[in-house]
UniProtKB/TrEMBL annotation:
PROSITE patterns according to UniProt: ASPARTOKINASE (PS00324)
Broad enzyme group: transferase
Entry GO terms, CC: cytosol
Protein name stated in the entry: Aspartokinase
Pathway(s) per entry: Amino-acid biosynthesis; L-lysine biosynthesis via DAP pathway; (S)-tetrahydrodipicolinate from L-aspartate: step 1/4; Amino-acid biosynthesis; L-threonine biosynthesis; L-threonine from L-aspartate: step 1/5; Amino-acid biosynthesis; L-methionine biosynthesis via de novo pathway; L-homoserine from L-aspartate: step 1/3
Family membership noted in the UniProt record: Belongs to the aspartokinase family.
Lineage: Bacteria, Pseudomonadati, Bacteroidota, Cytophagia, Cytophagales
Family matches, as Pfam families: AA_kinase, ACT_9
Record-annotated Aspartokinase ACT domain positions: 378-434
A Gene Ontology BP annotation from the UniProt entry: homoserine biosynthetic process
Residue intervals of the Aspartate/glutamate/uridylate kinase domain: 2-276
Length: 444
């Protein structure tokens, strides 16, 4: 079994959907995981936002605009009028779900139902096209039957494995399954999702559950680049990354992958290939247990962090202080991303500031507390084993004109993290590109 995930741009128009069949051919069975068509989830987020703000007329209007867009795509893709008409009946029932939710004040669970429609629509259209227009065999598997969160809102691997197997069982010998990325049910059985960009995570979870031999993430770029191509010019794709390196880059901002998406594949040792639907012949990036031996391979940056410094003379020569600090974050279920300590102070960063006020209140009982918002972690990933000396020098030399708030080195053999103010991000990424990767960028 192989799992192939296609992102928003890869299914973003009738033309893009027509290009998929050529990419999903193969002798072994496949599960194709689709995102919503590009722009759809943003439009649904906006509709929900308007409803939360009480802007019902605007929300209804935006829903109708989206519906008209889908009617056009359906007619363009499904050129047999009878096939189009059938699909439009299904499209209309998805839109009716949204229109019905505009009639009453929107709840959080209503919002999640709205957000789920994008993947339901894209898979419906592609499945109809593949089976009815091309006459090929494929089974549409409803992700809501097997993708599940546990009571901690984490994917429930055992449930997913068992229920995916049950969903596949009646279709022995089927060459192709099509399912939705991103959407799932939560522990209460209500419709939920894996957060923005979550279709990558779906693909990895499905790959792990199906014991797939490979997971392919098809997107609009030729693999994971050495730096953020949205911010820096002259980036290039990295051919090979280890699971750990890719997981760090995904977690620390490489948008090509959902932050958690490498973990299920890594746990089961399933290689992940990042490929470009616009350039299918390009080798892309292979993520596996193997890696190249460059000291620094790539840089990613994650915005929206808050740095907190707790200064206390109680820390001096004391034990148990850090534990008390960490317990505060644990109580509020707030992960810490980066940490540095001195004998009298500890600085750490969080990216979830939901409980910031309560956390600060508790931390003040330990000593003085300083908070810096709008921070960005710049994460450098590679083979940073001690023997590869000189890498840190290259990094700090490149960043000599940038004020650095925190530095973390040695936490793992493949990461150096640096905290800067977000306003310096572009300059920092550009400087790192020039200082670390320029020769490679010229001659990859
Ligand atoms: P999809 O809709 O297929 O999931 P995404 O937009 O989520 O695609 O991810 C692909 C985009 O990620 C690229 O177009 C690129 O702009 C962005 N990106 C950010 N950092 C990186 C990186 N290090 N390597 C490759 N792409 C990156
Ligand atoms: N459609 C969802 C989003 O836009 C999930 C995904 O595309 O990965 O976030
Ligand atoms: Mg994505």
């Amino acid at each position: 079994m192989k799992v192939l995930k296609f992102g928003g741009t890869s299914v973003g128009s009738a033309e893009r959907m027509r290009a998929l069949p050529a990419l999903i051919q193969g002798s072994e069975p496949r599960i194709v995981v689709l995102s919503a068509m590009s722009g759809t989830t943003n439009a649904l987020v906006n509709i929900a936002k308007l409803l939360f703000e009480g802007e019902t007329t605007a929300a209804t209007y935006q829903t109708e605009i989206l519906r008209q867009h889908y009617l056009i795509v359906a007619r363009e893709l499904l050129t047999e009028p009878e096939v189009a008409a059938e699909a439009i009946t299904h499209l209309d029932s998805a839109f009716k779900t949204i229109f019905n939710l505009t009639r009453h004040p929107l709840s959080a669970s209503g919002e999640r139902v709205i957000l789920a429609q994008g993947e339901l629509l894209s898979t419906l259209l592609f499945h109809r096209y593949y089976t009815r227009m091309l006459g090929q065999e494929a089974v549409l598997l409803p992700a809501l039957d097997f993708m599940r969160l546990d009571k901690n809102d984490e994917p429930d691997g055992d449930y997913i494995e068992k229920h995916l197997a049950q969903a596949l069982a009646p279709h022995a010998g089927q060459p192709l399954f099509i399912t939705q990325g991103y959407i799932c049910r939560n522990a209460n059985g209500d419709i939920d999702n894996l957060k923005r960009g979550g279709s990558d995570y779906s693909a990895s979870l499905i790959g792990a559950a199906a014991h797939a031999e490979e997971i392919q993430i098809w997107t609009d770029i030729d693999g994971l680049h050495n730096n953020d191509p949205r911010v820096v010019e002259g980036t290039y794709p990295i051919r090979e990354l280890s699971f750990d390196e890719a997981a760090e880059l995904a977690y620390f901002g490489a948008k090509i992958l959902h932050p958690s998406s490498i973990l299920p594949a890594a746990k089961h040792g399933i290689p992940v290939r990042l490929l470009n639907t616009m350039q299918p012949e390009a080798p892309g990036t292979l993520i596996s247990t193997q890696t190249g031996d460059e000291a620094i391979k790539a840089v990613a940056a994650k915005d929206g962090l808050v740095a907190i410094k707790i200064k206390s003379s109680r820390m001096l020569l004391a034990h148990g202080f850090l534990r008390s600090v960490f317990e505060v974050f644990e109580r509020y279920r707030t992960p810490i991303d980066m940490i540095t300590t001195s004998e009298v102070a500890v600085s750490l960063t969080i990216d979830d500031s939901t409980h910031l006020a309560e956390i600060l209140e508790e931390l003040r009982s330990f000593g003085s507390v300083e908070v810096d918002e709008q921070q960005t972690i710049v994460c450098l990933v590679g083979n940073l084993i001690q023997e590869n000396n000189g890498s840190a020098w290259l990094v700090f030399n490149a960043l000599k004109d940038i004020p650095l708030r925190m530095i973390s080195y040695g936490g793992s053999p493949n990461n150096i993290s640096i905290l800067i103010h977000t306003s310096h991000k572009q300059r920092a990424l550009q400087a790192l590109n020039e200082g670390l990767f320029q020769q490679r960028a010229v001659a990859p």
